[in-house]
Amino acid sequence: MTRLRIAACQLDTTVGDLDGNIERILDAYRRASDAGADVAAFPELAITGYPPEDLLLKPGFVAANVEALHRVAAATGDCVAIVGFVEHARDLHNAAAICAHGEVKGVYRKCELPNYAVFDELRYFARGEEPDALYSVRGVPVGVSICEDAWNPAGPIADQADSGAQVVVNINASPYAEGKLARRERMLATRAADASCALVYVNQVGGQDELVFDGGSMAVAADGTLLARAPQFTEDLMVVDVEVGPVYRKRLLDPRGRPVDDQLPLVEVTPTVVVDDPLPDHPDSVRPVIAPALDPDDEVWEALVTGTRAYVDKNGFSDVVIGLSGGVDSAIVAVLAVDALGADRVHTVAMPSRYSSDHSLSDAEKLAVNLGVDHRTIPIEPAHAAMLGMLAPSFEGRGPDLTEENVQSRIRGQILMALSNKLGWLVLSTGNKSEAAVGYATLYGDTVGGYALIKDVLKTRVYDLCRRRNERAGHDLIPSSILTKAPSAELRPDQRDDQSLPPYEVLDPILHAYVELDRTAAEIVDDGHDAELVGRVTRLVDGAEYKRRQSPPGPRVTDKAFGKDRRLPITNRFRG
Question: In CATH, what number is assigned to the domain containing residue 215?
Answer without folding.
Answer: 3.60.110.10
